[in-house]
Records
---
Amino acid sequence: MINVMQPSLGKEELAAIEKVFTSNWIGKGALVKEFEEKYASHLGSTPDRVLSTNCCSEGLFSSMHLLDIKPGDEVILPTVSFIGAGNAVCANGSKMVLCDVDRRTLNARAEDIEKCITKKTKAILLLHYGGIPCDMDSIMALADSYGLRVIEDCAAGVCSHYKGKALGTFGDIGMWSFDAMKILVCGDGAILHFKTPELREKADKWLYFGLEAKSGYENSVAQKWWEFDISSFGHRAIMNNVTAAMALEQFKKLPSFMEKRAAVHKAYDEGLSDLDWIDLPLPIPADCTTSYYFYHIQIKNGKRDELARYLRERGVYTTYRYFPLHRVPGYGVIEGSFPNADYAADNTLCLPLHQSLTKEDVEKVISTIREFGKTC
Ligand SMILES: Cc1ncc(COP(=O)(O)O)c(C=O)c1O
C-alpha cells in the first residue's frame, strides 16, 4: 500500500533518544530549550516569543485563554478547519462563526471573513491549508481595522513563508504540529509563536499549572525551593527531552524533506497536467513558499469517491482534509452558506505525499489515475 502520509525516521532519531535514556532525565530539559531556540531562529524570530507544548491542539485550546476570548465572544474560522479548532472555540463557550474559503486553495480570504464580522467578533482563527499561505496582507489589514486578534494554525506549514516572513509570525499566536502525520515528527509536540514576549510569558505559566516560580533545579538557589505560587489555574502541556531529541534530528533533515516533497509535487504536476477532468493545485505565488504538505487535486467529473476507491483497490491510499465543520453533525445547525467548501469537500482528493515515496510509487499513482480516467 502506498500511504498518503508517512514519517521519515532513521537511526539518527533512535541514537538521539538512546542518549536521552542514558542521561537519566527524560522530562522537559535542555533539549526542549535547544529545540525552541532552533525553531525561533528558523522562524526568523527570537526565543522570547517561542514556546513548545505537547501538541498543536493544546495551542488552539490555550489561545482562547491567552487572548482573553470569553464565552459569548465570536471567533471566525474557515469551515475547512481542523476539528480541534472548532472544538477549542466551542469548549470555551464562544461562538464558532464559519466562513467559506477559496475553492481552489481552500484558504479563507479577507472577503470571506469580513462578511462574518459582527460587534461580538473577537478573533480570527486562520488555517493555512496544507501550509499554503493565506493572503496575509489583506487579512491582517482587515483584522487591524476591526481590532481583531489573529490566531494562525500553521500545523503543517513548517517551511511556509508569505512574502519572506514565516507563516505563523503574522498574528498574535501561530502554531506548528509535529504529530505522527506531519512533516517534522516527534510523536506529539508543537511550537507556539507569540507576537509579544509578554504573551509568551503568560503562555509559559498557563502551560505549566500557572506556576509563578518553578520549583526544582531552576529555583534551587532559593532558600525554600519547594514553595511556589500560581497566577492562574493552568494546564500541564509541555514537551520532554525524548520528543525534543527526535524533533532536533528531524529538524536537521527538513531541507532534504522539502526537496523531496517539492520533487513529488513537480512529478504530479507533470504527470497529470494534461488531464482535463482534474484541476491541479494552483501554483504558489512567486513571493511565497509552501511546505508541500498536501497535493490536492479536484475532480471535475463528479467521480472523486470512485477515483479514491479505484486507487485504494490498487494499493494507493488517498484522503480528503479537512471535512468542513459546517457538516459535522455534533456542532448542530450552522448559519451561512459555503458553496466553495462544499465543492471542495465533494471533489477534492489529497494524493500520497511524503519523503519515502519512490519514483515507482509516484509513477504508480499517476498511471492509476490516468487509467481511471479512461474508464469514465
Ligand atoms: C490543521 C491542523 N491543526 C492542528 C492540528 C493538531 O495538531 P496536533 O495533533 O499536534 O494536536 C492538526 C493535526 O492534524 C492539523 O492538521
Note: The chain has a mean pLDDT of 96.
---
Amino acid sequence: MSAEIEVEYPFSEAAELGIPQEVAPGIFWVRMPLELTGLNHINLWLLRDGPGWTIVDTGMKSERIHDLWEGVFAKYLAGRAVTRVFCTHFHPDHMGQAGWLTQRWNCPFWATHREWLQGRVAELDQHDKTPDWFLQFFHKVGLSDDALALMADSGYSHFRDAVTPIPPQVRSVRDGEMIRIGGDDWRVIVGRGHSPEHACLFNHKTHVLIAGDQILPKITPHIGIHASEPEANPLQLYLDTLANFDHLPADTLVLPAHGLPFYNLHPRLDFLRRHHAERLAVLEEFCAEPTRVLSTLKVMFRRQLNPFEALLGMSEALSHLHCLMGQGRIIRDTNEDGVWLYQASGRRADAA
Ligand SMILES: [Zn+2]
C-alpha cells in the first residue's frame, strides 16, 4: 500500500511489453499486458534451460498476449524450443495461457498439485446463472437484495473465459523440492493465503527469487475469502508461510509478478507483517459494536471503491476478520436476517 519501504530497484525502467530483458544470467523478464483494476501488466519469466527454455507464468487468455508470445518465439529463442511451462499459481493472469503454450510446444506443465487442481476445478465450475450457494454467501456478508439480484443474473464463468484450457496433465512439485533449470538448482518455496499452494522458485547460485504474487514490492497481494470456502483463514496461512522466506540471503533479487524487480527482501517481509498487524488492530478497534463486513470497508481502505474493487475489498476485509477470529480477538454472530456481525471479544460484556 504505502511506499515507505526501502526496497531498491536495480532496473529503473520496466521491460517493454513482449520484449525479453535479461535480469540475471539466463533469466529474462517478459512483461505482458493485463487489464485488471489497478494493474496494467504482469511479469513473466523466460529461463534458459539447457537446449531449451522454461517459461514461468504465462499471462491471461487474450489475443494480444498470444501475439506478443509469438513475437518472443520468432525473435528471441535463438532456435531453441520451449521445453517446460511452470506456473506459480492458478490465477488466470498466471495460468491463462498455459494450455495453449504447452500444446504449441508439446511440452510438460509444471505446478504444485493444488494449484493445478484448483485451476482445473475453477475451469469446470461455470453456470449460466449464479448458483444459490454463492448468493447465500454474499447474503451473509451483507450485500443488499438489489446487489444480490444483479449478481444472480450476471452468470458465472469468469475463470473459464480468462484461460485457455488448463493442461490436463501436470508434473507436480512440492515445497522444498529442488528442480534443475539450465544447470542451476532452484528450490520450490510454497507460500499460502493468496492462493492454495503458490510456488516461488529460488535460484541457489544467483540468489534470484521468482516470487509470483506472494511478495510484491508496492502492493500487498490480495488475500480474500471466497464463497467456496466461507470459513477459511487465508491471512493466517499467508503470515505463517512468509516465514518460509526468512532464511533467504540478504542479497536476494526478487522477481515479482507485478511491479519492478527489487532488492531488500527482508525489510519488505517486515513491512508486510507490520502492515497486516496494523490492519488487524484497526479492525479490532473498529468492531467495538457488532459490525457488518461491508461497514469495515471504510476503515480498511479509506477511499471510495468501484464495484469490482468493493467485491475484492469485501473478501479482503473478511480474511482479516477471520484472522482475528482465529486469534480469539473477534467473535462472529448472525443477526435475525442471517447476516454476519463481528465484534471484538475484549469489548463484549460477556467476555471473560
Ligand atoms: Zn494471483
Note: The first strand starts at residue 21 and ends at 24.
